[in-house]
Amino acid sequence: MKKNKLWFRRKTYGWGWTPITWEGWLVTFIVLVIPLCIRLTAKALDVERATQYFYTWASVPMLLMALVLICFRYGEKPKWQWGLKRTKIAHIDLVVSNYKDSVRFYDLILISLGWEKLVSRLEYTSYTDGTLKIIIMPAQGVEKFKSPKTLAFYAETKEIVDDFYREVMLKNNMSAFNGTGAVGDNNYYSVQLAGPDQVIIEVMYSPFYCDKEFALNNLDNNFNPYA
């Protein structure tokens, strides 16, 4: 299974995982309900009360161990976290006229400064320092966006994105770039507006945006600037 099909993401606070897909929630539900089923089945079979509780509680550590193994297999690599430490800027998009030469240039500059190249595709190449992304795109690949530049800012919750849309954009007659307001899911939720000089401004909630396990950072590479 590819990493862009994760069922669990690591917790924002503490150590562990949170389900993010229906598969993850289903596995979690099954683990929670099995002890209850064991208890009810033993009771229906007239098993002694002490034995009922024994089998019920004996199943718990095995089920938790199974859940942990599933989370390791289908989840992000866990680590201790207490909130998300990041810059307020999420990503900067740069549109370039010579894509091949530009990727070579930013490989030399950014990687030497400790940045990591995440994905290199025909549509874009992305780098991260762990909290911020710089995305290089060929000019012909972004003509439909009618803008050569994007500046995106983190929001700590989806509600902040919605509040920004209502309280800042709507009250100041600013239209969403996509025409529909904030869109997305629990992994990426954002609203965009067109700023001066054809700059797209984006306010986004994406708690694991720069993590290597994040879906957008695990696409297959199909561009080699050194070929």
Characterise this structure:
With 227 residues, the protein is α+β, with helices and mostly antiparallel strands. It folds into 2 domains: 3-74, no CATH class; 85-218, 2,3-Dihydroxybiphenyl 1,2-Dioxygenase, domain 1. 33% of the residues lie in helices and 24% in strands. It has 4 helices and 12 strands, in the order βββααββαββββαβββ. It has helices at residues 22-44, 49-74, 99-112, 158-169, and strands at residues 8-10, 13-14, 17-19, 81-82, 89-96, 116-120, 125-128, 133-138, 149-154, 183-184, 189-194, 199-205. The strands form 3 sheets. An 8-stranded mixed sheet has the order 6-7-8-5-9-12-11-10, with helices on one face. A hairpin with a 4-residue loop joins strand 11 and strand 12. The longest helix is centred in the first third of the chain and has 26 residues, at 49-74. The chain is elongated, with a radius of gyration of 23 Å.
Instruction: Calculate the terminal CA-CA distance, rounded to whole Å.
Output: 29 Å
> Low-confidence parts lasting 5 or more residues at pLDDT below 50?
none
The helix count comes to: 4
Strand order, main sheet: write it out: 6-7-8-5-9-12-11-10
CATH fold category name of the largest domain:
2,3-Dihydroxybiphenyl 1,2-Dioxygenase, domain 1
* Class by alpha and beta content: alpha+beta
Overall mean pLDDT stands at: 85
How many runs of DSSP E, i.e. beta strands? 12
> What is the alpha-carbon Rg in Å?
23 Å
Biggest sheet, open or closed, and with what strands and sense? Answer: 8 strands, mixed
Report the CATH architecture of the largest domain. Roll
The H/E string reads EEEHHEEHEEEEHEEE
| The CATH C-level class name of the largest domain | Alpha Beta
Q: Which percent range fits the helix content?
A: 25-40%
Backbone shape: elongated
CATH superfamily grouping of the largest domain = 2,3-Dihydroxybiphenyl 1,2-Dioxygenase, domain 1
> What's the structural domain tally?
2
Strand percentage, roughly? 15-25%
